[in-house]
Amino acid sequence: MTAQRVFTPKLDLRQVQQTAQAMRTAISSVIEGKAEQIDLTILVLFAGGHLLIEDVPGVGKTMLAKALGRAIDCRVRRIQFTPDLLPSDITGVSVYNQDTREFEFKPGGVFANIVVGDEINRASPKTQSALLEAMEERQVSVDGRTHRLPPPFMVVATQNPIEMEGTYPLPEAQRDRFMARIEMGYPTRGAELEMLGSHGAANPLASLQAVTDGATVTRLAAGISEVHVAQPVKEYIVDIMEATRLSSDLRLGASPRAGLQLLRAVRVRAAMDGRDYVIPDDVQALLAPVLAHRVLPSSAARLAGRSGADAVTAAAATVALPRSA
Amino acid sequence: MIGSVRNTTAVAIAAFLGTLPLLQLTSDPRLLPGAAIVVVVLEAVALSLRRLTQLNWPGTLAQMFAGFAMVWLGAAAAAGGSDETRPWSVFELTWQQAIEQISVQTVPMAADDPTLVLLLVGVGLLTIAIDLAFINARNVLLAALPVLGGYLVAMLVLDTAVNVISIVAVCTGWLVLLASRTVDHERRWPRSLSSKDEAKFNLRGFAGLAVGLGIVSIASAVVIGLAVPPDGQSWLPQGRFGRSQSVDLIDPTIDLNANLHRPDERPLLRYTTSVPDGLRLRSTALTVMTENGWQLDQMRLLPGYPREQSVSTTQLPVVTQVDIGDYESNYLPVPYAPLNWDPVGSWSYDPRTLTVLDIGSDSRGLAGQSYSVASLLPIPDAEDLAHASAGTIDGSTIPDELPAEIIDLAHEITDGASSDGEKALALESWLTDPSRFSYDLRAPEGTGYSVLTNFLFNDRSGYCIHFASAMAVMAETLGIPARVAVGFTSGAQQGDGSWLVTSHDMHAWPELYFNGLGWVGFEPTVSISDREEEADPESSADASPTDPPQQEKQEEQEAQEEQEVDSTDQSSSSSDPQASSARSLDPRIPLGIIGALLVAAGPALIRALLRHRRLSAVHSADRVTGAWRELEATASDLNLAWPAVTPRQLAGLPWPGLTAEGRAALRRIAVLVERQRYAAAPPTEVEVGDDVALVSAQLYSAVGKPKRLVARLAPRSLLPGRRVRT
ipTM higher than 0.85? Predict the structure, then answer.
């Protein structure tokens, strides 16, 4: 009943802020000193996107994904991607039932509200594709039957940097399906010290209590689409997209889908900030997380040590700010 | 701070006290209440506007408007019957009338509407200047200048020193400002935060200390200033003029008596002048009435010449060439009032009587000297005199023991005269009536005052000194300051046009002091026009009454001549009197100055108007946009960068001078700007003025005073390249 409850897609800024704050506090109790990454995680959740967490092993990628799942009272599934993982392990299979003499669908790991895809780049491209189709379509087709995935649906995938051994790097088209990519980075000295203290005794995840539920998140997310985006801001986004495509540092610029995703992301950021309107600051803040993993830096830029994020930021800086509505 | 009642009151008090010295310039009793009204109105207007807008400049602007309105009203009232109502025409008319009045008068000026308006305009300008310096520029030192303004004007105009009351008033005014500012400083940076009471005690203590120090400094300055005679005339024996105060001056009346009684007429000097009827050369003036008649008072001798002053229209500059023959004296015979002189020797002058003296031990002497004197002869007409009112001169009091009958007589003679000038003329004509008095070189009988009573009531005969003394005493009893001048009559014109003055031409005549005219000479001596009679003691007794009609005619002519010849103490000097007469104030000069000031203040005014327009737009959205542009303009004025980033990012920049409060205000404005630009529903009912004022004030406080001044007077935001949209 909860998931199907009729909700009015009305923007409730206060509750968005309260919920976001509660989740932030809850997750912060597990991941110290990563406020920015935590905020982005919550943002992607409200925006109905998927998150790619990328960094070296052991910096808390999985911990962040798990903590997000714990903080929400909903169905959380974790899939550990390995080279021998099969697509059906993700989507599910039809099994013949002797008693009923019928094929019965056994849902795979993707049937959950939050799916934690650990080390997604260790699975074969075939298996990766199975997940990515579900991410995009929010449904699974097995044996000619389509199974819808219940909202909210969010995939939090973690991956090691592609240079590491034994990995199948995600192709550009598939990276494009993640709304944002974040890098964890090493914790600060203070945060690391604290972590040694708290994690030494018990698993902090165990004490993490859910602060909201899936239905609430879905309702709030629906309301966020009402956040006003002024015409100059839309033009600003389009101008930035255009600039990335023209940038000499980029071999491949941002796609129109990237623009759509950016628009959804900035709305959530505004709402989380308590605004019912988007400002250029929102756009600028989300450029790197939303666009950097979708673009391809040119060889020259790579040689010069400029990353995709740098190139996107530089391209955006050439765009004039919207002055007035 | 803005709109503080204390500071405004301090400005009002200081402005009022600062105008007190101007009281010495006019005898108009309306100046004091008028000045009070002007000051109170200007400050009240400024206070209310500042309270209302929380900005300083609208107060000043309002003061200017209020001042303009008051000048208009005052000028219209002063213009009287004129139907003219347009401000500029009214101003011009009043200005012309006032300048006309001022140019024909000397201080203290008579009561007069246009002059009062002009003086009150000065009071208003000083008030606005003090307000501007003290409240807008927050500079108590700068405010001292306009506080001193009235004093400086009085000092420049008055030949004699400005009185002590003026100095004390001006200093007190400045101390009030200082005290008020000290309280401000202590409020902002209290030295003790431990307890409220202690802070209050400290506050009072510190303000008291500051004011106390100020009072002590000024009091010592005044005391020392009074104790030390000016111009190096120390009471100590050394110094060039050390002996001057106790020097035994030869009583000129002895000389006068001796010469008039000499049987032989001895030529003393010759002079050449452009005045057709010749002129009287004057040696000195007797200023004190004592039991023994009019006496010399102590003189205060100054080297050099009297200071330059503008020439009024009732004065005529003349240059007289004098050649002294066999005549020795300490006094230099000069036409009154002398401006400069060039005989050989160390001649100095007494500023009170304009007596030119050489009393040095190395005195070259007068005999045989040949010199030229530049003088200003006053030429007031009889009407000027008839309307004149008596001036006031310190120390011109009659002795208590003066016989009452003389006082009664003076009142009796002048009964029916409406003005002090008419009274003087009545005295003159009463004494010159040949049916009443006769000329006689024999002095009246008696000693002390009995000489005078005998002359007036019994003998009714005497010579010039008695007529002059009698008229001067009676004038004094009527409240008209008087003194007796001693010198020579015009003498006899020679064939070559020069005038010959002999020993029998020695003469005495009274000088009376009137507002606007200064010292005016009279001729009460009966039949003075006949030189022969005066020269001949035997014939004088029967000569005077011989031909009354002719005599009268001569008297008239004489009186007219006197008025032409006599002058004022406050008349000025100039090496070229002809040139100086052209120096009277051209009304275009102050108007030009005002115009130049307006032009100089133009950018600041435009900037202020733009600011007002931006912040007071009708629609909230426009006000928000305006506030943002105003801040951009302020940054531009102060040469601060205003980068092209989002409002939020701008607000987050490390602006110099912004406190936490200021940053919060800037952030509030930035959020409003965002809402106005990007939200579906722009903000309504916003109030941005306070935040903009706070941020602007703090940004301004971060830069030095010179930069601040440049930013105010020459705002960069008005430059074409950096223009901020309105």
Answer: no
Interface contact A228-B648, CB threshold 8 A: no
CA atoms within 13 A on the CB side of A288: 15
Q: Copy the structure tokens of residue B277.
A: 């009827």
Is residue A259 in some structural domain?
Answer: yes
pTM of the model: 0.47
Angstroms from A10 CA to nearest CA on chain B:
15
Q: Which residues, in sequence order, are CB contacts of B454 under 8 Å at separation 6+? A: B444, B445, B446
List, for residues B108-135, the tens digit of each pLDDT value: 777 778 888 888 888 898 899 889 888 8
Each residue's pLDDT tens digit, B472-521: 888 888 888 888 888 888 888 888 888 888 888 888 888 888 887 778 88
Cα distance between residue A60 and residue A68, in whole Å: 12
Domain that holds residue A203: 13-85+113-221
CA–chain centroid gap for A308, Å, is 18
Is A102 domain-assigned? no
- CA pair distance A119, B434, nearest whole angstrom: 140
The rounded radius of gyration (Å) of the Cα atoms in chain A is 20
Whether the link from the prior residue into B146 is cis, omega within 30° of 0, is: no
Residue B649 to residue A281, Cβ atoms within 8 A: yes
A262, part of any domain: yes
Report DSSP state, residue A307.
-
Indicate if A168 and A280 belong to the same structural domain: no
Pair A285, A235 in one domain: yes
Quick check: B676 and A325 CB within 8 A? yes
In sequence order, what DSSP letters do the residues of A212-233 get, joined into one string?
EEHHHHHHHHHHHTTSB--HHH
Q: Tell me the C-alpha distance between A209 and B44, whole Å.
A: 67
Please give the DSSP secondary-structure letter assigned to residue A119.
T
Report residue A297 CA to chain centroid gap. 22
Pair A178, A249 in one domain = no
The distance of A253 to chain B (nearest Cα, Å) reads 24
